Amino acid sequence: MSILSIESSFIQIRDYIEYPSLGILSKVLLKDCNCQYTLFCLAEGTKISEHTANRNAIINVLEGEGLLILEEKKITLIQGIFAVIPSNAPHSLHAHTNLSFLLTLSANS
After folding, report:
1. Is the pTM of this model over 0.70?
2. Which of 40, 75, 99, 104 could form a disulfide with 68 if both were Cys (CB 3.0 to 4.6 A apart)?
3. Number of helices and strands (H, E) in the chain?
């Protein structure tokens, strides 16, 4: 279930950021037939092992610091970074501090 619907106008995304003591907390903000917008909150030290997805993705960092490894390229994640992850591109992530980002997934490729 999504927090927003297409009819909703807006939210203050900061109100939904909450960090777990360990691991990942995710909240689907909006999902339609074209995209899915999910808020990810990662506890400090959390690692997401290398994987691929069959959808294009965007990571827009809201708070914290981390490292994205995208096709062997290291990308420092800090507030304001907007990273494009093409479908089927191998990538992994490590949260150096509590880290929150908005993940946008396109429709299936």
Report:
1. yes
2. 75
3. 0, 9
